[in-house]
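Q: I'm writing up a methods section and want to include an example of the input and output format. Could you take the sequence below and give the corresponding predicted structure tokens, formatted cleanly so I can copy it straight into the document?
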Amino acid sequence: MKELAVSNKQLASIQEALVQSEKLASMGQLAAGVAHEINNPLGVVLMYAHLLLDQFSKNPQLQEDLRMIVDQTERCRKIVAGLLNFARQNRVVYQPTDVRSLVDCSLRSVSLPENVTVEVLHEGNDSIAELDGNQVTQILVNLIDNAFAAMPQGGQLTIEIHGDSENVRFIVTDTGIGIPKANLSKIFEPFFTTKPLGKGTGLGLAVTYGIVQMHRGDIQVKSNADPQAGPTGSVFTVTLPRKGPSD
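A: Here is the clean output for your methods example:
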């Protein structure tokens, strides 16, 4: 009975991964098909909204409404840009890469809040892995951005790099507000976000999941959003094969 339960759990995990992969593949196809059609009219709306902002600079009520149009149009453009980025990332370029340099580059690519401290820990001497450096950097940037967003009152971000002969592992830990249990199963779905309107597209973790899958890797998350259950915060663990495919 125990072996059957383990097999059923593994099967459910595989089915969930297949469903997620199908969602991401559909998202890429959608992006490739409609991005340019959407970008053109969005550009026109944005241009005329800015012209109207200049024309009615002395009308506070219209200014407020026009800024809303500008903000929401920019949000649409970010969504399209995120879709395009994912659609283009359908091929992994494996190269020997220093994983420590990827973490350093990722931290330089984001704005560090004044009330957040960052610690980077590296275990082991072998820091070289066959990865797509640009794509793995995007994984780390997305996780770091989300960690900062989860700590509006400040906190600690810890990035650990572990590895053995088979895999390299990035562990990103924050002391933020945590992710409610009800949302944990949704966080990798395209367009799912808990950020305020206009602050997030819901594509960061979906793209992260897609890149991890293309690297034949795995991403896991543990989180606590209930202060009564212990310290709040989240831990994302990304495991990637150290060597690229042999074929």
